[in-house]
Every structure is written in C-alpha cells, then in structure tokens.
Amino acid sequence: MLTSDPTYRQLRIWQQNLAKLRMAQLNLLNSNTLHKEWDLILIQEPYIDKLNNTRASSAWRVIYPTSHLTNNTCSRLVILVNRQMDTNGWHQLTIPDSADVTAIQIKGNSGKLSVFNIYNDCKNNNSMDVMRGYLACNQTDLTDNDNDYMLWAGDFNRHHPLWDHERNRHLFTSAAEKAAQVIIVLTADYDMTMLLPRGIDTLRARRTGNWTRLDNVFSSGTMEDLVVRCEASHRNQGPCMDHVPIHTIIKLPTQKKAPTLARNF
Questions:
Q1: Architecture of domain 8-255 in this structure
Q2: Which pairing describes strands 192-194 and 148-155: parallel, antiparallel, or unpaired?
Q3: Mean pLDDT of 89-117
C-alpha cells in the first residue's frame, strides 16, 4: 500500500470511449454521483470543441496529452482528476509527441502508481510505439521498487482470442492477430496482467449489433492482489453509446483533501 494513513481511501477509476459525442460526455458529467464515487475518469475519444477544449465540470481537473495544442493533431483522450485528490499527491507525466497517450503518477509514503490512458488507433500501433519508448527511458521513475505499480487502460482497438469472446472467431484473422501481437509483447515485457477477464464484451457495433472486446485494462503483475474489482458496467453505458464503461477499484489509497469547514452563523 502507498500509505496506512486513515485519511486515504481506495482509488476508483471509470474509463470509457465516448466516441467524440458532446451529449455523451455531458450525460456522464451531469451525474450527481460521479464526482462523489470516482477519483479518475479516463476518457478515450472525448468531445473536443473548435477551440480544442473538452468539457468538464468544476469538480474535475482536466489532464490533456502533453502535446495538446502544440501540434496539428487533435487529442484523442483526457484524464479527469477529482479535485478532492490532493495535488501534492499526484502529477502529470510528460509524454511528448503523442495525442493518444496521457498519464498521471500518484505518490504515497512508500510507493507510487502510474496510470496510463491509451487510445490505440485501429490503423496503426503508434501509441504502442510511444509507450515502448517512454517506458524504456523512464523505467526507474515508474517502477523503482516493489511498491511501484503501473496501470494501462483504454481503447486498444484490437481483436484477439486472449481477450475477445470465442464467438468472434471470425475476427481472429492473421492480420488482426499480428496487429494485436504488439500489445501482447509489450505487456509481457513489463509483466502486465490483464484485469478484465477474457470474453467480457465492451463494445456493441453500431452497424451489426455484434458485441466485441476492444477496451482493456492491464496492471503490474505484482499489484494483482490489490485489485478489488475490474468489470464492464453495461448498465452505465449511457444513451447512444457503443462502448461500455469499465470500472476498476484498487486498494491503493489516494490522499483526499480535508473538507473545508464553513462557519455556522
């Protein structure tokens, strides 16, 4: 655990691809309980307006990719950090030259957790190349001791029998498996474990209605016992959405700001 301080609590993460839909994002953010129940919201394909801004309520700090507004590529993900998380306990990781990877690192008294939000394009593995390069150059900062962990979450846009349901055998072409191999090798190289069980669907195709698995969550193998829950929440999919949110709860307490007491007069 990062700390035994009783003011810390479990880290609760909501991830979902919102298909760039403004209404979908507003529907999610307008929930009266979202900021009370979740610490991090990892959004892939968020709504981005003409000024290159996304949407978030005052309950959240928006973390864009490091390269946001510095190149001609539109950011394809954001992390929303609950403002109740103490800013002394986390910071954004600098990942240059990518609109498809962003990350924060949460620190405690005896360790840290690096949370990566990833959007992997269906036509290339550029985000995986960015991950490989960043991990190779920053290994010491990410996993320097036994209490340091990583979490990779997002839309990986790949079909493979290791995570898709067997009914989707028609999708397991040689080209698809070759494309997915990049993810498989990278997770193996860094001893990452798939948290969401094989066969759990996360996407319903708009055209065919077929359920598949494109979204995933991987964690350091050493933190598998700290995972309380990782599940696809179909009942919270939201209107007009094709991707299902994934909820992950981890026994790595995160420091919360002490509530401000108002005078009673």
A1: 4-Layer Sandwich (3.60)
A2: unpaired
A3: 93
